[in-house]
Amino acid sequence: MLFIVALDKLRAAPWHRQRLHLILATMRRFSIELADAGYRVDWRVASSMAAGVDAHIAAFAPEQLRVMRSSNRAGASLIARLAQRHGDRIDVVPDDRFLCSAEEFCAWADAHQRRDGSLLMEDFYRWQRRRLGILVDADGEPEGGVWNLDHENRLPPPRDGGTWPESPRSAPDAIDAEIAAFIDDVDGLTLTGAPWDGTWATDRAGALARVHHFIAHGLEGFGPYEDAVVSHHWHLNHSLISPYLNLGLLHPRDVVDAVLDAHRRGALPMNSVEGFIRQIIGWREYIHGVYWWRGADYASENFLDATDPLPPAFRGEPTDMNCVHHVARWVNDYGWTHHIPRLMVLANLATLAGVDPAELLGWMHASFVDGADWVMVPNVIGMGTYADGGAMSTKPYVSGGNYISKMTDFCRGCAFDRSARVGDTACPFTTLYWDFLDRHRERLAGNHRMGRMYANLNRLGDIDEIRTRAVQVRSRLASGTL
């Protein structure tokens, strides 16, 4: 079994310490488990992946090297180059980390795209449930009579802030010390974020334990509060298992079967069960499929011609925006936030401010422990910034301060007034929301889902003041003085 730590990969882009440690420690533990089970293991630190493969072949002369298909384009390109270099010696097997392969998704997408070329995740999700036999009856109809209980899962946080389960932690051990020392010894790395602290499991047993902890302590309340955010707790009832699925420590079937077993025992409300399973077999697999279906140019799309730099506040520089301050701290400390901080704080602000989607994409890829290329490209280019012009979502996911006030407690005590559009204390989200609609009127006013937004914009009598304030806000965001 060949394991390669490729130094050029480590030096090519910034790494959050939690993410890099998670990947390397997971590799190291797996290599030791295999060696203990009697496998011959070759652990190599090499200048590049290709150099590591060449050195392995020179040392061991294997008849064949079996490699799983990569989930991202850079990995697929590397495997193709290795196949050219070593011919039939490279055997590529399917990627088994998904319930729907890229080929199956592309076939489904070709048959189900709408007249405008877009897809609907809900269509895919129902197709998945039927073909996988998950939460459906013998006739393929949804258990309980409805497919989607999302309307039950939009509660704001409780007025008292709520009580939320704590996540398990793994005590750092000798392997963690080895990996931390290795990371510190590699020259030329650009590292961000807090040091390793055991937040993330680095073996399959630990990942499975996290699943069962979530089912016992988080899943019951997951559904109603899945979109809520509170400043005193970084994950609420969310499962924190995305990095384990992406690395292959967990298979989606492991997770779905464990949840369904608990559901059959009658211990869990249907809106939480359905909402969570939708994330696993719906959104996660849909995002992976869209990444391959849309093609290599998808990552560089920029429908709104956004060119502003990433705000320094995202990287933890001081800011008076309470929401951005808290979310940036969570990214720094854990390399993770759930979907609402990502979408409605970070991506929302970036879209409203005109941040170059490629800059946001690169930062998110480097900063999150689950930041695989296939994860981030559709989420940032499609969902987060509307850079694909609506191929993935029918309208931009943008809002002013009112949404943040409704679904979080960030606005309490914030220096800015979420209801004000203009003035020195106007919420940057609110100012930029109306300015965004104004700036992109030609592109977006014809969108049938945005008619009410533009009707409200047309009634504003302070649009000139909003434009002036927005210029100031965007400048101060870029300079890190907001």
General description of the model:
The protein has helices at residues 7-11, 17-36, 49-60, 73-86, 102-112, 121-132, 174-185, 204-217, 219-222, 242-247, 252-264, 270-294, 322-334, 339-353, 357-367, 373-384, 401-407, 428-439, 441-444, 451-458, 463-479; strands at 2-6, 15-16, 42-46, 65-68, 90-93, 191-192. It has 482 residues and is mostly helical. Strands 1-3 form a two-stranded parallel sheet. A two-stranded parallel sheet has the order 2-6. The model has no long low-confidence stretch (mean pLDDT 96).
Describe the protein's topology.
Layout (H helix, E strand, L loop, with lengths): L1 E5 H5 L3 E2 H20 L5 E5 L2 H12 L4 E4 L4 H14 L3 E4 L8 H11 L8 H12 L41 H12 L5 E2 L11 H14 L1 H4 L19 H6 L4 H13 L5 H25 L27 H13 L4 H15 L3 H11 L5 H12 L16 H7 L20 H12 L1 H4 L6 H8 L4 H17 L3
Parallel strand pairs: 1-3, 2-6, 4-5
So how many helices?
A: 21
Uncertain residue segments: none
Number of strands: 6
Architecture (CATH level 2) name of the largest domain = Orthogonal Bundle
Report the CATH topology name of the largest domain. Answer: DNA Cyclobutane Dipyrimidine Photolyase, subunit A, domain 3
Amount of beta strand: under 5%
Q: What is the overall shape?
A: globular
Total domain units: 3
For the terminal residues, how far apart are their CA atoms?
51 Å
Strand order within the widest beta sheet: 1-3
Q: Looking at this structure, what is the CATH superfamily of the largest domain?
A: DNA Cyclobutane Dipyrimidine Photolyase, subunit A, domain 3
For the sheet with most strands, the description reads:
2 strands, parallel
Order of helices and strands: EHEHEHEHEHHHEHHHHHHHHHHHHHH
Q: Estimate percent helicity.
A: 40-55%
